[in-house]
Amino acid sequence: MLQERVETRDGWVSVAVHGDPDAPGIVLVPGVMSDARTWRHVASALTAWPSVTVLNRRGRNPSGPLGDGYDLATEVADLGAVLDARPGPAAVLGWSYGGTIALLAAGEREIPHVIAYEPVDPEFGSAALPDLAAADAADDTDRAVEIVNRQISGYSAEHVARLRADVGSWAVLRRLSRPLYAELRALNTARLPERLAVRAGRVDLVVGAESTGRAPYGTALERVRARLGEHRVTELAGHGHLAHVTGPGDLARLVDSLVG
């Protein structure tokens, strides 16, 4: 795995390149509460592309800070800079917030294939924004992790207690929560175009079977679908929103199967 720095219009991001760094391939865009490291098992399991580039979005070491004026357009521009830095045209796989970024990028530039796993929209998680703002102002990352799991994702108090009991994993979640408020605010205040991904050669959506038809992720997916032209939806059996954690090999095999 090779780590590279990519200059953006007002900062920099890092990428982790798996496979042949000189070959075209696929770019992975993680969502909130994740980074290139949490997606490494998916990246290493993909076989349909000679290279897999994982974007470490802003606010995640060693990428730069979110910066003043951060919004969804910032993320789209960063993805564009990464695509420009990679050899040849690249497919893009985006997860959650990263899926939204990928679909928006495909409205501004030609992308041959966009794969979005449970992308979200501006309505997603909006009720939790005031509490996240308070946690952010207090620099209370424990509270931020609780909010994203309980109020946004809808997990039980027992689930959060199990997460907290794993000291190492909880520390990672606290670190990943630092940009969370700014990211959700950027999503909630965005105005999506009436039609998404109009310059994509092909659009595939993926939904975990545990999310299908259910709030918050399955319902957000349906709202995103209403803004898409021709696309295909594939269900990943046995998993929900966190398939990159619960079944990275299963997710990679499904994504590989979407080629061709």
TrEMBL record:
The keyword Hydrolase applies. GO terms for molecular function: hydrolase activity. Residues 26-253 form the AB hydrolase-1 domain. Gene3D superfamilies: alpha/beta hydrolase. InterPro entries: AB_hydrolase_1 (IPR000073), AB_hydrolase_fold (IPR029058). Keywords: Hydrolase. It holds the Pfam family Abhydrolase_6. This is Alpha/beta hydrolase. It comes from Nocardioides simplex.
